[in-house]
Amino acid sequence: MGKNKEQLIKLACQGDKQALEKLLLICQPDIKRFARRTCSTSEDIEDAVQIALWQLYRKIGMLKTVATFTSWLFRIVERECYRLFRIRQANKINAEFQLDDLPATYSNIDLKIDLINAITALPLIYRQVFILKDVEEYSSPEVAAKLGITVEAVKSRLHRARTIIKQQIKTPKIADI
């Protein structure tokens, strides 16, 4: 890191707005280059860079030492790329699952409707795991990798999803009474 950049970081940490603006301009190409290697799509790259610059602008005063600046900034970009990737994966999973994809082999159409309603009513974190594991038949490690969670979390969420679905299907409807 050059002397000039170190001085800008020190001044920005002390609240100098002009130094902060110069620092934002100087850092943007490096951040963008790093984001290109880390993010999964071009939209995510742009979003991650903007968020990193915004975090830099808002939190530069919290930086304790100039030496940690670069790793701190790149860690912000890395976390943001990962967060955007998880959101994109969650949206992809929800978009891929269509209610008509369930097999029409059920003898009881009411059971099929109840099952579909129970699955769609699940909270997102349970629905994602349930669809990947029980509908698309991925293994627990594959589901964990797709969602960025542990295998234990997959098992726990799957158990909870199945329990919720069983409770909803077993609960008699007012129209059935």
Q: Topology of this structure?
A:
Layout: H1 3-13, H2 17-38, H3 42-59, H4 69-96, H5 109-121, H6 124-135, H7 140-147, H8 151-170
Helix pairs in contact: 1-2, 2-3, 2-4, 3-4, 5-8, 6-8, 7-8
Architecture of the largest domain, according to CATH?
Orthogonal Bundle
Low-pLDDT parts are: none
* Distance separating the two termini: 74 Å
Principal-axis shape equals elongated
Largest sheet entry = none
Strand content: under 5%
CATH topology of the largest domain: Rna Polymerase Sigma Factor, Chain: A
Strand runs, count: 0
Q: How many DSSP helices?
A: 8
Structural class: mainly alpha
Reading the helices and strands in chain order gives: HHHHHHHH
Level-1 CATH class name of the largest domain:
Mainly Alpha
Q: C-alpha Rg, in Å?
A: 24 Å
Round the mean pLDDT to the nearest integer and report it: 82
CATH superfamily of the largest domain: RNA polymerase sigma factor, region 2, helix turn helix motif
Fraction of residues in H or I helices: over 70%
Overall tally of domains: 2
